Amino acid sequence: MSAPIAPLLSRRDVIAGCAALGLATAADAAGEPGLAEVAARRGILFGSAVAWGGQGSDTGSFANPRYAALLERDCAVLVPENELKWQATRPGPRLFDFARMDAIADYATDRHMRLRGHTLFWVPPQWYPDWLRDHDFGSRPAQAVEAMLVEHVRTVCARYGSRIFSYDVVNEAIQPETGAIRDTVVTKALGGEAMLDLLFHSARAEAPHAQLVYNDYMSWERGTEDESHIRGVLKLLEGFRKRNTPVDALGVQSHIRLLKSDPVAAIVKESAGPWRRFLDEVVAMGFDLVITEFDVNDRKAPADIAARDGAVADYAQAYLDIMFSYPQLREMLVWGLSDRYSWLEGFDPRADKLPKRGLPYDREFRAKPLRSAIARALAGAPRREPLRPAG
Ligand code: XIL
Q: Which of 77, 92, 155, 193 could connect to 47 by a Cys-Cys bridge, CB 3.0–4.6 Å?
């Protein structure tokens, strides 16, 4: 194992760091329990995405004392935001680099937090490392792709062993517009279904202790693409069951979107029924559910901060209440804790250029109404059997 990239901080360091900065987390100040604790009482594991510490201290990383204070307050599970993706771990066809992921894994282990593996393969080519995008797989491309994928799964699973208890084995295989498996240099070589099956069978063989998840961003909003995306995911899941592909759970990314200026209640009303029907079908096939990447895209929510935070919180709670009504859902991860580092800022900016407010804490690490809404949804969830411990 390589040495940690950034010095690891003890809880005492974090508290001292916060004191030095004149900070207390808003949750501490309010004397409220952490979200992980509220969730655990209901049999739910709560956590967040995190970045490694190598890009300076003003990042969504454990090496940032202000961010680490939030992680240690609220999280029982972490997931690397980018550090286990091929762009980070596969600098060349025959090269692996786990320095960044190791730093996160060491931190999680040190803090007795659990760890999810995101992801063994992210299907859309825009996220491939450059060398893979137009790689020449030679005269026998099927064999070459198969060898590459199996080697990848084996190498990752052997390195992290029981430290990773759950993998997003495949991320985003469905093309939302068509509902079909995406056509890429990798899926084409083996055929989409065969390629996905290979990844899941390899993961089961190499990490028999782990929960194996198919992860995607089909969402409850009612656009045309949402419909075809959902139909495509259902078809994919049916195929997994028919072929006995070892898939344990559907990862519902849950990047929910306030993309209409309608009142929140009206948006929720049109989404709730069809979304429940989708989830009913998923659990009827025997899949568990995981909220893997929760945040709220507030692109069309009001500019006024109080109104916006209220709309985001209400929208989130309506969604989470539905999700937690399913006892098959036992993990919820947010895609970061503070708006300061949210990926949504770059991915889908507001027309008025105001900073987005889709995560539980604001840019100054103060708790927002969204944090309270998440706490309420967790506290109101029916108690369920927690996941069995890893390994
Ligand atoms: C995002 C990260 O947050 C960004 O930092 C990166 O530039 C692109 O990827 N769905 C996923 C995540 O499965 O891996 C994505 O993460 C967000 C959408």
A: 77
Look at ligand 1, atom 7, and give the residue with the nearest C-alpha. 343
Distance of alpha carbon 119 from alpha carbon 96, whole angstroms: 15
Q: Which helix (H) or strand (E) holds 46?
A: strand 45-50
Answer yes or no: are the C-beta atoms of 213 and 175 closer than 8 Å.
no
Q: pLDDT by residue (tens digit) across 68-99?
A: 999 999 999 999 999 999 999 999 999 999 99
Residue 68 and residue 51 in contact, taking contact as beta carbons nearer than 8 Å: no
Residue-range domains of the chain with CATH: 11-379 (3.20.20.80)
Give the predicted TM-score (pTM) of the model.
0.93
Lowest mean pLDDT among 259-263, 322-326, 371-375: 259-263
Residues with CB under 6 A from ligand 1: 81-82, 171, 253, 293, 343
Using most ligand atoms within 8 A of CB, pick from 83, 118, 119, 335 the residue to mutate for ligand 1: 335
Cβ contact 159:98 at 8 Å: yes
- With contact defined as beta carbons under 8 Å apart, do 209 and 202 qualify? no
From the CA of 82, how far away is ligand 1's center (Å)?
7
Distance CA 197, CA 223 (A): 29
Out of 55, 343, 344, 359, mutate this one to test ligand 1's pocket (max ligand atoms within 8 Å of CB): namely 343
